[in-house]
Amino acid sequence: MNIYADNAATTKMSRTAMNTMIKCMEETYGNPSSLYRTGQRAKEVLEEAREKVAKVINASPREILFTSGGSEADNQAILSAAALGLKKGKKHIISSAFEHHAVLHTLAKLEKEGFEITLLDVHEDGLVRPEELEKALREDTCLVTIMFANNEIGTIQPIRELGRICKEHGVIFHTDAVQAVGHIPIDVEADNIDMLSASAHKFHGPKGTGFLYTRKGIALTNLIEGGAQERGKRAGTENVPGIMAMAAALKEAADKMEQTSPYIKGMRDRLIAGLKEIPHSAINGDEEHRLPSNVNFCFEGIEGESLLLLLDEKGISASSGSACTSGSLDPSHVLLAIGRVHDVAHGSLRLSLGEDVTEEQVDYIIKSVGEVVEYLRSFSPVWRDLQSGKTQHIL
């Protein structure tokens, strides 16, 4: 049995997105900046895609900027807000301790340039507390950037409340919504969001395509200079086939969300219940405020890398955390942020389900994880010390 359970890393392109992309490459291959008919037709479909994307998150088409993905969108949003803050003498930014590295590394860069960064605690449940955000705000705060849903443990933040607080204090609020867009409802107006980042390959679109939503009136700093594409804010000929495919995938995901979300959530809960039966295991993050597809566990006494390799031999594709850091031997910064100790954080497993998962597959995952954990513990000196009482169990 082959089961792909790493949809948080990337998703398979939908047939709708693929067909849209192929049709665009065959029929609408012109350069949108060209004045002749072929180019102008490409410009038309580009704007049609912008309208589709905007509608899903309740934005204006002119507030959508197409990018190469979520990392670029995060960088442009944060650097733009920082530049605006600098002009006003405001050099304080608030974020959370378990953001994606596209955010954290950009903040580290700004810190070297004299900005002060405050990282809010995300607590054991993986949630930011609105009252702690409000307490951390200062007169010189120019930006708050907090992810909509965590890419490793799947916890969904109280975005609407966080955004409301920022709005009341006149501070730009950005959210990295890469894991959330296309999976849970988002309304940038109701959620009080000023800037939002998204990536197509997380919702069955193509890799290398994404978008940045920026509320009207917020000036963007260019990352790429050159031509006048994207209203002069991102130079380079637009990837029209990729953008069209992204818009098609997003519309399809949004249209199907009401139907697919309860089903995926049911499979997720079935998987969580099964994995909880494994002794000395624990789910990471709040169970209620969680993406419908995300399951993240720690297992005491084992190494996550060995767990992944043995699951792969059983036909299960999974991960121990973010795909961007899968080559690292260090424990996940996300798990450390929610209070997991190093030894436990090393034994983590992230499973992210798709809408095509079946009960049979979920039960196979539960059985396989149990077998692999038992096998790895059978020759683990760490587990032997735990069982003998030489060291104390944490989970």
Structural notes for this entry:
With 395 residues, this protein is α/β, with parallel strands linked by helices. It folds into two domains: 3-9 and 257-388, Aspartate Aminotransferase, domain 1, CATH 3.90.1150.10; 15-253, Aspartate Aminotransferase, domain 2 (3-Layer(aba) Sandwich). The chain contains twelve helices and twelve strands. Strands 2-8-7-6-5-3-4 form a seven-stranded mixed sheet, sandwiched between helices. A three-stranded antiparallel sheet has the order 9-10-12. It has a two-stranded parallel ribbon with strand order 1-11. Helix 2 packs parallel to helix 7 (240-275), helix 3 packs parallel to helix 4 (101-112) and helix 7 packs across helix 11. The longest helix is centred in the middle third of the chain and has 36 residues, at 240-275.
Strand order of the largest sheet: 2-8-7-6-5-3-4
Task: Work out the radius of gyration.
Answer: 22 Å
CATH topology of the largest domain: Aspartate Aminotransferase, domain 2
Q: For the residues shown, what is the average pLDDT?
A: 95
